[in-house]
Structure prediction request, 304 residues.
Amino acid sequence: MKPDLSTNIGGIRMRNPVMTASGTFGYGPEYADLVDLNQLGAIVVKGIRSEPTVGNATPRTVEVASGLINAIGLPGPGVDGFVDEYMPFLRRHDVPVIVNIWGKTIEEYAEVAARLDAVPGIAGLEVNVSCPNIKEGSQLFGTNLALFEKVVKAIRTATRLPMMPKLAPNVSDITEYARCAEACGADALSLINSVPALAVDLETRKAKLANITGGLTGPAIKPIALRLVWQAARAVKIPVVGMGGITTAEDALEYLLVGARAVAVGTANFTDPGTAVRVVRGIADYLTRHNLTSLDPLVGAFQA
Ligand code: RRO
Prediction:
């Protein structure tokens, strides 16, 4: 018998626990010729704010040992552009669509959440309070607990959609943010965003990225993310989505063991767009080999 891979992330029902991480999968159509989107647990689209945005100067990405540093700066079509250009395509698929949202002010976050609330076909919102590459607002909201609380409360008031803040890794106590999100009405949590980082060019003696600093992702950050997901998941009852360096089913299973109810594949999409689907199959094989019929006995089974 095939194991049941389904999971429920704060009201978002997923056929399997593997979603795509925001910023690594475009808005869906970019990957549709390469991946059967209906086999994914959910699609999380690149961050959307109220207005179209151009993003940072190039170079925006640099490869480093076991990872990638990016400073893309959130280029995007804005709410109206996203809804007009991409939602008709996404609605034709049978996969939950989670929209990652951001803003430069608390009012803008709330406005974006309210406008998306009225759009058919959106399963939930991921709130990006942790972009390392935006000077105004966004980064600050994820590393200052008082501002984090305000933004989560404002979004809760603005929308009935399931809502999950995406936590920053560079805080001294992740459990404070996890508990605060839960207390402010978040339905789930996702973590981690990228780790603030720097790459230096020896010849020019300058930074390799135009933005100077960027966010590190990929296998290099998996152990950092696992520790944070473990701590966050133990601190709250709401479901946690774990991500950071997932390339194989084994990586994903480690996140489930430390308490994640779902995972996201990010940087690996750039080298192998089929990663998420491969991870789904690998999780199913693992359950079968261990005579498990669902994910439940695995989630949080890690013994410290
Ligand atoms: O667009 C980006 O530069 C970016 C964002 Br919004 C984010 O949340 N995390 C990241 O690594 N890059």
